[in-house]
Amino acid sequence: MGPDIWTVWKGALLWELYMRTYKHFTQEDEVVVTGEALIEQVKGEVISGLSGRIPDATVDAFFKAMPYKYIVSTPAETIVQHIQLVESLQGGALATKHTHHLDLGYSELMVCTPSKAGNFAKIAGTLAANQLNILGAQIYTHNDGLALDTLQIESLEKKPILDERLWQRLNEELLAVLAEGREVTYRPGRTIFARKERAVPVTTGVEVNNRISDMYTVIDVTTQDRLGLLYLITTTLFEIGINIHLA
Length: 247
What we know:
It is built from eight helices and six strands. By secondary structure, it is of the alpha+beta class. The strands form two sheets. It has a four-stranded antiparallel beta sheet with strand order 1-2-4-3, sandwiched between helices. Helix 2 crosses helix 3 (56-65).
């Protein structure tokens, strides 16, 4: 890996891995919290972060409707934003929120919409059609039939998306494809990112595992990164009848 390949995003992921590993190995056994106690601890932090703006009963219902993996892997401040997003949907077709992480070089898009097979592919395709690269995505399904997706995105110049006109257009296009039936305009090509990077070629591989989960099939895909890759993968899964529950 050379200086042209390393990115601030990759550094952030490595730093998060280091901090979680450090915390795990330096905690005393008696203070390690797991299971129901951990859920209650995170819930308390979220209720505190909401400062009474949303009833505790609503927070409790949200926690019961989300998978355990979501609760243990999502920061409390992010859960606060997710709950506010779910409440803002109010039976509508789409609620979004975007924030910027200028120090890390990316923007974050949160999307809440009624869960429907193929919807995440439409979101990924809409972003690709606007020349936006998806660095990471966390996809969760609420038990009450809502999809709650968080995506870290950047421009092709590796910068946050600060143009509010682009965000307005994105919201309009997302609403059109998710609620009004408009087709995604993006058509994937074979072009790797238009960057001066000397990336090592990656051989495409797909692993399907039915053993590590009692409820779901786990699919791992390794391939060369390029604009629209996530759209291509999720569209393929949708077309063969596979629904994404968590990613």
